Amino acid sequence: MLVVKKINAYIGLLLATIAITISPMLRIPLKGNWTLYEADPRLLYISMAVLGLTALLLFIRALGAFRVMAIITLIWSVLMVIAVWFKVHNYFGSKFFDRMLSKTIHFQWGWIVLMVGVILLATSVKKERLEMIKKA
Asked: What sections of the protein cross the membrane (predicted)?
């Protein structure tokens, strides 16, 4: 039987939503802090869809599907970090300009908030053994 830790799941959903929508993800020298929308809008839309589906499955109490979607959300978040890292380090296609750009653009604290939220989501469902009570 699957059991959900509701507090962990709700805090994870809240942190992941805040991280994806309004937290700064990149620090650009002349422009300031960039959210995920400014870094790559497609990543934002896909991430919001995955997170929305995960939240829907939690709210309708489909715990098996929620567990799978929480793990998919974790994998998607790791892939998102890797994609943004490659975009920063291979933007122009020239080694000189890419090296200069990658030294000036820095990752911000939004990634940490996202990972904490997604890890809370992924660990909020556990399998528990149902024990039968015998009546004498």
From this structure: 7-30, 42-60, 67-86, 106-125
Domain span at residue 7 reads: 2-127
Q: pLDDT tens-digit profile of 23-80?
A: 999 888 888 888 888 888 999 999 999 999 999 999 999 999 999 999 999 999 999 9
Q: Assign 3-state DSSP to the chain and report helix, strand, coil percentages, each to 5.
A: 65, 10, 25
What's the total number of domains in the chain? 1
Who contacts 27 (Cβ-Cβ below 8 Å, separation ≥6)? 33, 34, 105, 106, 107, 108
Within 10 angstroms of residue 65's Cβ, the number of other Cβ atoms is 15
Amino acid at 73: T
